[in-house]
Amino acid sequence: MGSIFSIADAIDMVRRRAVTILAVFLIGSILTFFYALSKQHLYTSSEILQVQSPTIPVDLAPTTIPGSSARRLQMIEQQVMSRGGVMELIDKLELFPDASEMPDSEKVALIRRSVTLEGVAAAREGYSDDGTVSLLRITANWATAEGAQQIAHEFSQRTIALSISSRLEQARETLAFFQLQEAAVGAEIETLDADIARFRTENAIATPGNLETAQREAETVTEAILNIDRKSLSLRRRIDAPANSRVEKRQREADLLELQGLEAERALLVRTLEELNDSLVGTPELDLQLAEYTRQLTNLRAQKQQVSARRKEAQIGLQLETQRQSERLTVLEPAPLPEYPFTKARKQILVLGAVASLLLGVGVAFLLDLRHPVVRSAAQMERDLGLRPVISIPEVKPVRRRGAWRSGLRRLLGRRTSDSS
Q1: Cβ(17)–Cβ(365) under 8 Å?
Q2: Which of 45, 60, 157, 360 has the most CB atoms around it within 10 Å of its CB?
Q3: What pLDDT, in 10s, does the model give residues 42-75?
Q4: Quick one: residue 244, left, alpha or beta (phi over 0 = left, psi -120 to 50 = alpha)?
Q5: Are 136 and 119 spatial neighbours (Cβ–Cβ below 8 Å)?
Q6: Cα 117 to Cα 42, 73, 92, 167, distances in angstroms
Q7: Cα angle 54, 56, 57; round to 5
Q8: Given strand 328-333, what is the order of strands in its sheet?
Q9: For 316-375, what is each residue's pLDDT tens digit?
Q10: What is the distance between the alpha carbons of residues 62 and 64, in angstroms, rounded to a whole number?
């Protein structure tokens, strides 16, 4: 420790460097005083929001809002802390009434430094973290207690309002998307139905409903032709039989007329049956094209069924958001009015600064002693050099008597007078 090996050495150093210690102490105290005057008291207030779970279980009514609650709250925080949102809050609460010349960028930066949004993660289920947040703490630090409370409460209300509006907007956009998709698929189905109908008309292909009717008609016509053939066969047998009497000849003539009528009727039925068969049987190319149309129509109907199911889920999700039965933010603890500032008092800062200045002065004095090592006592000489001094002569300072300068001045004047004479 240099020249300090005991309490007496330390006291001697303080006595010798008293001027240096006092100068450092005064300079440090003055700087601390001005720093304490410039230090502004800050009050803090926190409002706690709770993330409420959906009223209806997600398994029964799944939500259409994607992402975890942590990501949604992060997006809301970015919107709340945007320049426009902060400037709107400043104008509403009149936070800078006496700083009209202060740039808006500095005001926004000050608000962003003064307000913090901190989320508390919910308890995990198993080993996976789903990003669920249970609490959101909004803390505001401001120069006045009322300002801190108002800022925390205003940010809390804006966060809740943005959460509700963003969820409603996403639910509406989801429902609108599926409604448009369902309408688009329905339009494609109508267009394809029209193409199929035109294709059947151009190629004389019966529709599925008319196909069954045509098949039944063909069966009826075939059965009628068979009945005519049976009647014609019976008439030919009677006509081929010999006619001996006048009555038999008349009957033969009647049978001939009836046979001619049956043959004409059979020819008409045969033409009808051929037309029905032509409508029922197509070429392979037409069958392939018709099968492709049918496959496309089946896929579109299945797609419409899926879209309709999702559209119904989106409607349920919108109803849950409108009735506020889904995940929502509620105020758990409103922002209180702080009674005392959380920053240190000015007197405490001044006392700590004075103590630090005093210790700094002692340290400077110690460093000066280390830079100029001098043997100041017999014990120090014996300790450092190993030599015991025989005589120790203390430092003797001349004692100036009061009025000595006057007697000296008189003697000087007396010498000058004798020399002149």
Answers
A1: yes
A2: 45
A3: 889 999 998 887 776 666 666 666 667 778 888 8
A4: alpha
A5: yes
A6: 18, 9, 20, 20
A7: 85
A8: 115-121, 133-142, 43-52, 328-333
A9: 888 888 887 777 888 999 999 988 887 666 677 777 888 888 888 888 877 877 776 665
A10: 7
Q: Output the six-digit token pair for 421.
A: 């004479």
Local structure of 82: helix, strand or coil: coil
Residue 73, exposed/middle/buried by CB under 10 A (0-12, 13-18, 19+)?
A: buried
State the pairing for strand pair 115-121/43-52.
Answer: unpaired
Tens-place pLDDT, residues 212-262 = 666 777 788 888 888 888 888 887 777 777 767 777 777 777 878 887 888
Buried b / exposed e along 301-324 (16+ C-beta atoms within 10 A):
eebbeebeebbebbbbbbebbeee
Three-class DSSP labels, 299-339: HHHHHHHHHHHHHHHHHHHHHHHHCCCCCEEEEEECCCCCC
Residue 404 has pLDDT above 60, yes or no: no
- Amino acid, res. 112: R
Q: How far is CA 53 from the centre of its chain?
A: 17
* Strand duo 43-52 + 133-142: pairing: antiparallel
Q: Helix axis angle, 346-371 relative to 18-38, nearest 10°? A: 150
User: Which residues are registered as beta bridge partners of 262?
Assistant: none
Distance CA 292, CA 100 (A): 74
